Amino acid sequence: GRAEGKAEGRTEGRISGMAESIIKLLEDHGKISEDLQTKIMAEKDLQVLSKWLKLAARVDSIDVFRERM
After folding, report:
1. CB 68 within 8 A of CB 59
2. Alpha-carbon gap, residue 43 to 32, rounded angstroms
3. pLDDT in tens, 8-66
4. How far is CA 46 from CA 1, 31, 64, in A?
């Protein structure tokens, strides 16, 4: 019970932290729309978030990020 809860909490923390990191990287390119922020924060798949994080680090605009995500 408790071990499962801790593992789940750690995973949720990683998901949330990764989503916030993506948003922070994208903010370097301007204001992020609320719908894009919502989509990023709603994603719960670590593999998808990892892909988006790498993409956010490489793109030169929010529009390019949105097109490639």
Report:
1. yes
2. 16
3. 878 888 999 999 999 999 999 999 999 999 999 999 999 999 999 999 999 999 999 99
4. 23, 24, 21
